[in-house]
Amino acid sequence: MTDTDDPDVTIDSKDASCPGPLMALIGKVKTLDAGTVVELQTTARNSTTDVPEWLEEAGHELLEIEERDEYWSIYLEVN
What we know:
Layout: E1 9-13, H1 20-29, E2 37-42, H2 47-58, E3 61-67, E4 72-77
Parallel strand pairs: 1-2
Antiparallel strand pairs: 2-4, 3-4
């Protein structure tokens, strides 16, 4: 598994309501090369289920979901 301590790209979608975080992620992923590690920061609980579902459909790899004090960090690798 890829190290998630130092992602290549961080998307700050804290305080954005659904589907904002997912839409920001989709838009950014389209511009990235395979192998890029992305951290999506979100306060939207639905993102913890919506994002993994989209990643599976789109063929990207979910690395980790980390719950922090005030938000979640969802780490993925672009394929």
